[in-house]
Structures are given as structure tokens and as C-alpha cells.
User: What shape does this take?
Amino acid sequence: MSGRLATSLAPAAGFISWSIAFVALYGLVSVGCLLDWQDVRWGPLSLLRALLAGLWIGAIAAAALIVMASWRRMQAAGSETAKASPFLRKLEIAANGAALVSTIWIGLPILMARQCV
Assistant: This one.
């Protein structure tokens, strides 16, 4: 990927990760409910809740890595992103930070709600 394209997509990276997590989580709920995974015990959790929690934690980790990468790019002297305007650098961190919060938010029902109705 060229440097200019990477710089252009950097503010959207967090929400791209969020959208993949959103579709994966709710797709997994649909498949898990269809296959009755909520009734299969896996330790103290149902198999479905354990799979959802694992996927959610992985999505949070990915979003956090994107935020850290944005922060490092902002701090890096001489990189193409560092040459961008201060507004664009702050926009990238803010957008990716918002995506991290959104990723945490979409997974909260995993902890509280019944998966299948």
C-alpha cells in the first residue's frame, strides 16, 4: 500500500475494524442460536457466550492497537503522517479512539443480555 493511501485510510481504520467486529459478533449470535450453542456448557459459561466474549476481546485488542499505531504515527518525526497537518493527526487519533469506545459499547450486551430469545 502506498504511503498516501495508508495516510488517507488511517482515520477510518478503527471504524473498519469496528464494522468487522459488529458483523462478526451479530453473525456469531445468529449461528450460535441456530445451533443451540447457548445450551452447551463450556466451563462457567455457555459455548456461545464464551465465543462471543473471545471475539469481543479480540476486537477490543485490535481497536486498541489501531489507536496506539495512530499515536505512534503522530509522534514519529519524518514519517508521511507526521508531515500531515496537526488537525489531521488529531482527527486520526480521535476517530480511532471513538471506534475503540464503539467496539467496547457493541459488546456490552454479551455480558448482560440473553443471547437467544
Remarks:
- The chain is about 75% helix and 5% strand.
- The radius of gyration is 18 Å.
